[in-house]
Structures are given as structure tokens and as C-alpha cells.
Amino acid sequence: MVSRLKDHFKYSKAHFMPELPEVTYYKKYVDATALNQEIIEVDPADSKIAQASKKEFEEALLHQKLEKSHRHGKYLMLTISNGKILVFHFGMSGSFEYIKHDKLPKYAYFTLIFSDNSGLCFTCPRKLGKVYLAQSLEAFKKEHQLGIDAMDLDLKSFQKLLSNKRGSIKGALLDQHLIAGIGNMYADEILFQTKIHPNTGINQLSDEEIKALYKNVHPVLKTVIKSQTEESLLPENYLTPHRKPNTACPNGNGKIKKIKVAGRSTYFCPECQKEK
Q: Is 71 a catalytic residue?
């Protein structure tokens, strides 16, 4: 199982920037490799990534075990046997690699070595990921002002979060203080599936459009998670595999266009997603 996970994990990290579905996959990877093993060595090799000192990480982790994992938004939180929490944020290129040898992979900037000499390496070529220590899950979420996890969202919460908000709907979907876990790629997908232009102002959306948008949040995220965990392609009518300017719309309605919305590169179909 671990071998299959590792092979697919390489495929996953090569094709996606870490958002909620990818972090869900990383959780599965850690669960299959690193839980319930005694930690005998901690190497926070890069101070830009490690958000605590080597001494603090050693005091929290040495001779302890990672007992369970929890995902909130784009963060993976690992409960240590002493009750503290080890938290990973993957930035643009963060990933894990489980090893059974002494040679560390390239770009391994935070490594845990276990008593059987295996190890869990956090690799991050662009050095935009972060590794934190926290006293509890709730304390970390409060400190970083993380919004409700996208998978815990219900319609009433969604409607309330958008009420009296300004700016574009895509900007709101990307705001981790409102909803944690939706990033650039899947915000585009949710909007494409709902046929809403990404630059549409929140105040321009009707109640029915907000309901339709909400109804696509969970199905899109679950579809991507299933695609990754089952090593299958996304549905043919999904935008994600077609994120390139002038690519044919998967619905057969013109060409995909690229613009900037909320400071992010945004892909959409002008025919499917009419601008108001």
C-alpha cells in the first residue's frame, strides 16, 4: 500500500499545487507511513520553513510519536503523543517523502527520523512552506484566523459569510479567513461548474446563484479527492485539465481565457461564464 501511495504521490505533487484535496491526500500518505513510530531525530534544516527553533522542535518531538492526523483547510496537523501539534503548510511546492534509507531527498528541509531508521521528509523546492509547533488545534486555528473548513461548510454558513462582503466572488472563495481550503485552481473549477464569471461582485449574485455556487463546493472537492486517491482522471467536463489560454472549453463553448482576479491567474470560459 505504501509503495502504491508513494508512486501516486509523486504524480500528484507534480501536477497540483497543494489545496484541500492535495492536503487530504498528504494526510492519507502520513497515516500510511509515519504514525505511531518513535521519533529519534529531528532536523529542521531551513529556518525559513521551520517556525520554531531546533531546540523547541527537539523538546516537543524527540522520543514522542505522531498519534493522529487532522486536516483543516490547507494545513495538515499531526498530534504528538505529548499533546502538542506539529503543523505543516505546503506553500506552492511542499510535499512529503517517506524514506527507508540514510540519503535524504533533494529539498528536504524538515525531517523526522524514526527508531527503525525510516524517516518522513518535508520537501519544499520553493521554500514557501512552513512547519509550526502549536499547543492545540483550536489555538492554531485561532492564532492564524482560519475560517471554517470548506468540507464543513453548510448553506446557511456560506450565505452568512458572503453577506455584506465586497469584492469579487473568486476573491471571497480564496479568502482563508472566510473559508479554509479552497485555492486558486479549485475556485476556478467551482465557478466554472456554476457558470459564474470569476470577477462577478458578491453583491451582484442572486440568492439562487449563491445556492448554486454552494451546491458545487463539496462535489468539486470530493471529485478531485476521488480522482487522486483512485488514480483516475477528472471528468471530461472539468476545467482543471484545460487550464491554458485558448484551450477548447470542455463544454464545447469557445476557448478558455486567462485574466487576473484578486491578484491571481484565473481561467474561465467567457461563453459559459458570462460577465455581468
A: no
Is 264 designated active site?
A: yes
| CA distances, 184 to each of 19, 71, 176, 202 (Å) | 8, 19, 11, 17
Instruction: Give, for all 276 residues of the chain, the pLDDT tens digit.
Output: 444 444 434 434 444 579 999 999 999 999 999 999 999 999 999 999 999 999 999 999 999 999 999 999 999 999 999 999 999 999 999 999 999 988 899 999 999 999 999 999 999 999 999 999 999 999 999 999 999 999 999 999 999 999 989 999 999 999 999 999 999 999 999 999 999 999 999 999 999 999 999 999 999 999 999 998 887 899 999 999 999 999 999 999 999 999 999 999 999 999 999 998
Query: Please, what are the domains in the chain?
Result: 2-143 (3.20.190.10), 148-268 (1.10.8.50)
Q: Which of 28, 65, 74, 130 is catalytic?
A: 74
Our answer to whether residue 21 is catalytic in this structure is no
- Give burial (CB, 10 Å; 0-12/13-18/19+) of 169: buried
User: Is 19 labeled as catalytic in the residue annotation?
Assistant: yes
